[in-house]
Design a protein that fits this description.
The structure is a homodimer. With about 300 residues, chain A is of the alpha/beta class. Chain A is built from ten helices and eleven strands. At the A-B interface, helix 4, helix 5, helix 6 and strand 11 of A face helix 4, helix 5, helix 6 and strand 11 of B.
Chain lengths: ~300, ~300
């Protein structure tokens, strides 16, 4: 078995992988000086996200373990031989914590306080009437996956009333386009954690943003394409909604001239939501755990449809 | 009955108070041009925090409803005639939310991200290994009052293991000085929400700060005197602990030359923890609710010992 390792590992993570992988040969992409696709083309297994084209052109590849939850670049492949597994559920705890952190930052003024500290400026009591509580908020979550359920768990402690929009999940409360619009108009906090598909692109468009309460906050920890970014920036600049927490944006890195940089009441968490110290090592562990059924010719975990 | 209103109310709040107070005469301190103590000295009831001296010198005052939870300025009065009630429990929800917001800000990098947004600087994936999760943390809460219990409720959703230090509360796990030191050495997050007394001043001193794990965070939402601020600033500057969330400080406003302003990984929330839009109106409601038993000569709520 030859394994192509496209995910970037540090020396400890490489050592851990090699110690636990048995006799298989491993090629680390970051150690190749030239033509990585040539080396890749001889491998049966790949760990890490490689260009779609490589998958399509490969004749040897049997299994691709992605280093992400999102698999939209690999949908509807003509190469039907390759099994692809993703990291379903892997990021739910850190992403949900980042989302709640962002919401609380806006409500409790933490982002503003961070700027005041740099300026050594004391505002104190004068800030208090501008603060709000998350307690008891009406929260609408778009997408009823692992992140959504983790969010519900955290937000329930704040006595939030949490409901889900999801087209094909019977545990959701809202399914249709009309139900979504009505739910948006009633929510205090709207959190997007949907995968990308043709139907989710700009699902939150100008019209739906206009339905939001002026006191409501919109959060996106799914895919940047969910929200019409030009329309959202305008709402934020006009203060016609109360704020936004954006872990994902249509382009990343966010271009320097993008209006989001200048929007008030906006937290740009720069796609760090899934991050934590042991993140990459834990990804290696997921790969190793899935390698066992692969070797034994048993069903793999988290195969994408 | 003559009521002296020392708490600063806006016109709506004054109107609400007057509409609900019946025939009593109300004197608003902020409408007096001169000598407020003279007007105060004729009143039987006071709403809001006035100088200790006024209480001591008053012959007419029967009841003082404080606008705070803290009552340390009014302890051991020689004037034993006055009943004093505080706002026990009033701030527990917003303060607990601010504390969790501050902890999550440090762990999920939100305070740093706020500064990057101002600079329009994208760091993105490079930040991820520096982030941490609150999930599963060992949290030690000093003080087992309303704020402590609200914190336990919120933190339990993050699967934190929460324990309490409190000298005289049987529901706490740690009571003695030795137990406190041991618990500090084991905690990932230490949250102070103790009232001020001779025993709590600098309870968190240099020695106890030195026992903290290098990865631990200290939070103070009680009284600024709890922590030796010079010692804490040094630990933060040396990065020998992971951070601090300080809603209260020994002096407020924090003097411009105080080292806290320059400490890394430090959130200064400027005593805004209890704040929210309807805060003052809700205080008026608490006063009005306590006015009924006062009028009926029944026991008042939240009398201080």
């Amino acid at each position: 078995m030859k394994i192509f390792c496209a995910i970037k590992l540090n020396s400890n993570e490489k050592e851990f992988l090699l110690k636990n992988i048995g006799n298989s040969e491993v090629i680390f992409q970051d150690e190749l000086a030239i033509d990585p696709q040539k080396y890749f083309s001889n491998c049966n297994v790949c760990f890490g996200n490689i260009p779609r084209k490589w998958v399509e052109e490969s004749t040897q590849l049997n299994w691709l373990q992605l280093e992400s939850v999102g698999y939209d670049p690999y949908m509807d492949l003509t190469n039907r031989k390759v099994k692809i597994s993703n990291l379903k559920g892997f990021f739910s705890i850190p992403v949900a914590e980042s989302a709640v952190s962002g919401i609380l930052s806006l409500m409790r003024g933490m982002n503003e306080l961070a700027l005041l500290k740099v300026k050594k400026e004391w505002v104190g009591a004068a800030m208090r009437p501008s603060l709000r509580m998350l307690e008891g908020s009406n929260v609408l979550i778009l997408g009823a996956g692992a992140i959504g359920y983790q969010l519900k768990k955290l937000l329930s402690a704040f006595n939030c009333v949490v409901s889900f929009y999801a087209k094909f999940n019977t545990e959701a409360q809202y399914f249709s386009s009309e139900e979504l619009s009505k739910a948006i108009s009633e929510a205090d906090v709207i959190i997007g954690c949907l995968p990308e598909s043709l139907e989710t692109i700009h699902l939150i468009n100008e019209e739906r943003l206009s339905l939001m309460k002026p006191t409501a906050i919109v959060v996106n920890v799914g895919r940047g394409s969910l929200i019409d970014d030009a329309a959202l920036a305008q709402k934020l600049i006009d203060c016609s909604i109360a704020g936004a927490v954006l872990d994902v944006t249509p382009k990343e890195p966010l271009p320097e001239d993008h209006p989001f940089w200048n929007c008030p009441n906006t937290i740009l968490s720069q796609h760090t939501g899934g991050g934590y110290e042991e993140e990459v090592l834990d990804k290696v562990k997921v790969f190793l755990k899935n390698l066992q059924p692969y070797i034994n010719n048993e069903p793999l975990n988290n195969l994408i449809p």
